[in-house]
Structures are given as C-alpha cells and as structure tokens.
Amino acid sequence: MKLRFNFRFVFLLLLLGAFAIREVALELRPSWLRPGLHLFAYVGNTADGTVSAIDLIKLATVATISVGPGPSGLRSHPTRPEIWGVSSTGGYVWVLDCRSNRVAAQIPVGSEPYALDFSPDGRLVYVAASGANTVLAIDTLSHRIVARGHAGKRPWIARVSPDGKMIVVSNRDDGTVSLLDATTLAQSAVISALPDPEQIVILPDDSKAFVTSGTTNQISVIDLKQKVLLTNLALGGPPNDLVLKPDGGELYIPSRDTHGLLIVNTGTNEVSDFILLGMSPVAATFEPATETLYVSDFDADHIVPVAVATRQVGRPIQAGDGPSTLRLTPGGDILLVIDSNSDDLAAIRTKILPTGQASLSPPRPPTGLIPLGGSPRDLATKVF
C-alpha cells in the first residue's frame, strides 16, 4: 500500500512538473509565432570569439558557434535566416546560417571593422574598415564585394539612409562625416562635425543625421539635403546610446553621467526634456505599440520603463548583474537584456499596456537567465 502511494505521488509530481514546463513555454511563446517557426536570440561573446544561439521558447542555448576574434555588430538579415556580424580583430565579415548554426561565409574587408548595415531590401550590406580607411558594399547573396570607397580617417560606422540612396559615415580621427553614394560609394560631401564622431541615427524622411561625439557632451546635427552642419547640440552629459522614435519626432539619449534620459526634439534640434532615471542609464530600446522606452541601468541592475508620451517612469524591473545591451523580440513580447557582469542573458516577459501608458506594476523578474560566453556585448534576434 505504501509503495503504491509513493508511486502515485511521484507520478503526480512528474505530471505537475510537465504541466508547469508546458505553461511556461506557452506563456513565453508569442501568440503570432505559428507552429514550425523558431524565435532565437544571438549574442556575440567578445572574450572567446563565439556567438551563443538561444532558443527563446525553450530558454536554452542550443549552440555556441566560433566566429572569430572580437565579434561585433550583430545584425539580422531582413529577409533570410541569417545573422551577420564582423570580426573586429580578424578583419572580416561573417555570415551565420540560422538553420544549421554554422558559419556560411567569411568575407575579408580590412582591419578593424566594428559594425555593418543593410540596404532596405537586404541586397547589400555596408561596412567601414576603420584600420584601412575604406567603406565596402557586399552583395549578401554572392558574398562578393561589389563596391569600395574612401571616407575620412578611421571611418567608424557606415549607416544607410532609409531610402537606401546614401551612406553616412562617421570619421573618428578627423572629426568629419562623409556622405557616399550607396551604389558607387563615391563621396559626395565631407562635413566637419564634433571631435571623435561615432554613433549615427538618420531620420525616416532622410532629412537629417544625428551623430554623437566620443569625447564631448554634444551631438552634431547634419542636414542631409543641403549637406551642411546645422548645429552642435549641447547635452549636459556624454551620450551613451541613441534611440529614435519610429516616426522620427524624438531622439532618446540615455546618459550615464547625468543619471537620466535626454530627449531631443528632432524638428527644432533642441533638448526638449530630461527625465531623471537612476544611477547609470546606458542603453535603451523602444516598444512602438505601447510607446514605452526600456532603459538599462548598469549599476542599479535593473530596467526602467518610461512612457514617452506622458514622461511617466514605471517601477524598475529586476534584470540581473550589470544590464547593458537590450532588445525586444518582434512584437515586443520578450525583453532581452545582456548582463555584462554575470555573462548571461535575461529574458523578461513584458506586460502589454494600452498605448501611451507605462507599467506601474512592472513585468515580472526575469523569466529566464541563460548563461553566455565571456564578455557578451552585441545582440540580435531572428524569427525563422
């Protein structure tokens, strides 16, 4: 009788455990993700030259792929099941096949590439080789270099305009921004900017570019139609990230030294608002459906949700040790956060809110903490 009771008890525990696992999986699985589709995250680990491939439904790393030293600039191809990135130390672009979790190509581009950007149709990818003072266009199907151009000294980042006609390049060593033709990579203008220009965002109507400085508390505002510098805008603190509202009306700038969020009106080129957030806001990502900006606070170990329409700050969300880079999965169902101090990825199920409202009752603590490789930095997601 006792043995029979124990057997039933163990069976009940197993049944409840299986039911709990199923419920967690169903809860994390977005409603739009039909059977047969996969939802993955890919994280570049700079210390060991690998990429972690993470199944976000199972909350598990399914592969660790060697891509070469200094992986950086991870981007999801717009139409194909591929993740692209660069080996900053190796001087090449690599292509990861999501279905096989294998490197499909390595394309030499020159020394010190740090980032890449796709044309709107995904046919071309552009990369600046900082050590070689060149900008290259690569055909994403054949993996061949189809154009090569020159910008200024130590081109840092090459960004494609939304219409796909222009490449905007920040030249770190000569404090300029180059404008190149997207087809030929011929240079059409060189514009003086702030010292050590780095990050770039371009408005959806292709009218302006905003460029950060690595050594000043300002950003340069460039008129892309007239090809002139409009102004150098004082921020009051160094910018750590640039996040553009999808309609282009506002630019959100987390600033670690100011302990808050600077908001730039892109029409008037002015800092229109400042929101005090916490200890060290370093990065942000925007959720269009709810107009919520999620900001990572590195030293406070949490994420701060901000309703940008009302400037309302929600309660902090626990996110692990040293949260830095963060992304939302398509549809905004899961917030992914790289924990730089503990080398893991936090997956947080977001709470869907009415448009324009922030979460006063925040999303739960991380649904999962997934171990990564050493010194994780860049993050991309893919549905395939």
Cα-to-Cα separation, first versus last residue: 52 Å
Q: How many DSSP helices?
A: 1
Q: What does the overall shape look like?
A: globular
Low-pLDDT segments = 1-5, 18-25, 352-360
**Main β-sheet: number of strands, strand sense, barrel status?**
5 strands, antiparallel
Strand content: over 45%
Radius of gyration: 22 Å
Percent range of helical residues: under 10%
Summing up helix and strand content along with how strands pair, one would put the structural category as mainly beta
**How many strand elements?**
33
* Oligomeric organization of the protein chains: single chain
Kindly report the average pLDDT value: 91
Describe this structure in words.
This protein has 384 residues and is mainly β. The protein has one helix and 33 strands. It has one helix spanning 2-28, and strands at 39-45, 50-55, 60-66, 71-76, 82-87, 92-97, 102-108, 113-118, 124-129, 134-139, 145-149, 155-160, 166-171, 176-181, 187-192, 197-202, 208-213, 218-223, 228-234, 243-244, 250-255, 260-265, 270-276, 281-287, 292-297, 302-307, 312-313, 317-318, 323-328, 334-339, 344-349, 368-371, 376-383. Strands 24, 25, 26, 27 and 28 form a five-stranded antiparallel sheet that branches. The chain has a four-stranded antiparallel sheet with strand order 3-2-1-33, with no helix packed on it. It is globular. The relative contact order is 0.12.
